Amino acid sequence: MKKVIVVFGTRPEAIKMAPVVKALKARPELEVKVCVTAQHRQMLDQVMDIFGLTADFDLNVMAPNQTLGDVTCKVLKGIEGVFAQWMPDMILVQGDNTTVMAAALAAFYHKMARAVNPYGDGKAAKRSPRSFAQARCLRRRCTGLPKRQRPFANMLISVVRTQG
Fold first, then answer.
1. What is the pTM of this model?
2. CA distances from 105 to 5, 11, 19 (A)
3. How far apart are CA 90 and CA 112, in angstroms?
4. Is residue 45 assigned to a domain?
5. pLDDT in tens, 62-83
6. Structural domain tally of the chain?
7. What is the distance between the alpha carbons of residues 60 and 46, in angstroms, rounded to a whole number?
8. Could you give the CA distance from residue 7 to residue 22 in angstroms, rounded to a whole number?
C-alpha cells in the first residue's frame, strides 16, 4: 500500500485540495493522511468542516509578526516531525511558495521519491515587486518543478498510479 500525505494550510488551498484528498482516499491501494500548516486557522477550520476533512497532523505555524524564515523553519521542522511518526511514499503540497519549498526540502532530506505542488503559483509573481517575485521563483525552483512541468489536479491520480 502506497502512503501519501497531502499538505496545505489556508482556506484557498483547502478548497483546492479537498476534492484531491477525497479522490485519493477513495483509492483502496492508498493510505492518505492530511497535514495542515494552519497559517489561517479560523478560515481553514471552516473549510475543513464544510468538506468533512480532518487533519491527521497539524503544524499550527500561525504566529503574529512572523518572518518567512520563521515559517520556513516551522514547516521544515514540523514536516520532519510528521515523517518521524509516519513516513509517506509521496507528498502533495499546496501552499505559499515558502511552505511548498520547505515541505519539498523535508521530503528531499528523507529521500522521498516525489514532492508535487499540484497547482503552482503563476499569479504571485505578477502581483509582487520584482525582488519578491525573484525570491518566489527561487523557492519554486527549489521544489524542482519548472513551470512547464507542474502537474495540475486532473493529473494527480495518474501521477499516483505511475508510482505503483
1. 0.74
2. 15, 23, 25
3. 7
4. yes
5. 888 988 889 899 999 999 999 9
6. 1
7. 15
8. 14
In eight-state DSSP terms, residue 118 is S
CATH number, domain at 20?
Answer: 3.40.50.2000
> Is 164 inside any structural domain?
no
In the predicted model, is pLDDT for residue 139 greater than 70? no
Q: pLDDT at position 41, please?
A: 82
**Residue 55 reports pLDDT greater than 90:** yes
Handedness of CA 55, 58, 64, 70 (dihedral sign): negative
Domain assignment present for 143: yes
pLDDT of residue 49: 94
Q: What is the pLDDT of residue 101?
A: 83
Residue-number span of the structural domain to which 84 is assigned: 2-158
Between 68 and 96, name the one with better pLDDT: 68
Rounded-to-integer distance, Cα 131 and Cα 56, Å: 36
State the residue for C-alpha cell 482516499.
25
- Please name the residues in contact with 15: beta carbons below 8 A apart, sequence gap of 6 or more: 47, 51
CB under 8 Å to 67, separation ≥6 — which residues? none
